[in-house]
């Protein structure tokens, strides 16, 4: 947008703090190469357009904002004379994309001193060569440092996840090994018990009935009901009494296994009606091995399924063999992240999933969203650990207009108001030295805002801190999205 060109007074622009130390010759050059423009209320330039001019406000009110999703988010509003915006990195030349990193508008008639980007670059390098070199080094040095520390942040997260995954895999793997060894022993004893029964005076019909009971016993194990501790204790007492009454030794040891399998006194009565009194102990012992083998096979099945589930979660988390940009269900991403971090979350923190399963899948970079979830969960766990290690982590999804909300709520001590405005700044951290790089939330912000055109903000009071991620339900083609590592912050 062009404004009304007005005379440029060296005296007036010298009153602006940016130019107050310049010589009359330098002020004269600025006025000859630049201009003063008066803009009526409305836009001055638009985010993403080629950065052609450097603007310094002489008088009026200016507002800077950025496009986030489908909304214009205001990032700055001021009436202070001398504030500047626009092509502030023109002195870097073609080393960086020369585009406006935000949009600017004015809310009242406002005058600017406007300097073409080429002139701004030239005077910076001619008048302040050392400052230009220092700023250039600071700019690229900060970028390189941020990239290197960002990689370190990812490696630290990967190491933590690997340790947690190893721990989670070790438990079911060890359980499967133990169950397999016990199963081998029980099968051997069951073969021996079968030989004892076969050597007895069984008529074929009684033996057939006993085998039928064995088959029905295996079916009952698979359908065993869940009992309360009190119900299980009462049933164990009844079974132990019955076994003692029928001369079966160590009934107290057999009863818990039978109860776990869903068996009761009626089932034992069926067994007793099938065989004679002398053979009953051997028959009960044989069926006990049947029950134990079924329970052990169930344990092996549960353990191997757990391992398979963990491997699937790891693949889902890392997005191995997946397209980097695709339509995803955020609930699958959240579940895989929570499972991968279950070791770090621990038993003392309760995880509550408040999902709206009616939400549609969205186009996204799933591996990078998993990194966002990891950072936010890690911060929530750290906050609750610092307050005693107990608390509740609530992960909620909902629809807000044309965007999808993912909220992480923790019951930690909260974020102090004096640091809340800085938590998304690069290298800022409230964690002790060595426990945080200060890039987790900065990386998360860039992934959500720059790469997914969403928004990330926090609300916090003691006992209730909420990080809210808003993602558009639809998104532009990924090729048009700015790179999350190079996109600039609004000025």
Walk me through this protein's architecture.
The relative contact order is 0.09. This protein has a five-stranded antiparallel β-sheet. A five-stranded mixed β-sheet has the order 11-13-14-16-15. Strands 3-8-5-6 form a four-stranded antiparallel β-sheet, with no helix packed on it. Helix content is 49%, strand content 19%. Mean pLDDT is 78; it is low at 433-438 and 477-491. It is built from 14 helices and 16 strands. It is of the alpha+beta class and 491 residues long.
List the helices and strands and how they pair.
Elements lengths: L3 E3 L3 H4 L10 H10 L1 E5 L2 E4 L7 E7 L2 E7 L2 E8 L5 E3 L16 E4 L3 E7 H11 L1 H70 L5 H19 L6 H17 L5 H10 L4 H10 L5 H39 L7 E3 L1 H11 L1 H4 L3 E6 L7 E3 L1 H21 L4 E10 L2 E8 L6 H4 L19 H12 L3 E7 L2 E9 L19
Parallel strand pairs: 11-13
Antiparallel strand pairs: 1-2, 2-9, 3-8, 4-7, 4-9, 5-6, 5-8, 10-12, 13-14, 14-16, 15-16
Helix pairs in contact: 3-4, 4-9, 5-9, 6-7, 7-9, 9-10, 10-12, 12-14
Pfam families: cNMP_binding, HATPase_c
Keywords: Kinase, Transferase, Two-component regulatory system
InterPro entries: cNMP-bd_dom, cNMP-bd_dom_sf, HATPase_C_sf, HATPase_dom, His_kinase_dom, RmlC-like_jellyroll, Sig_transdc_His_kin-like_C
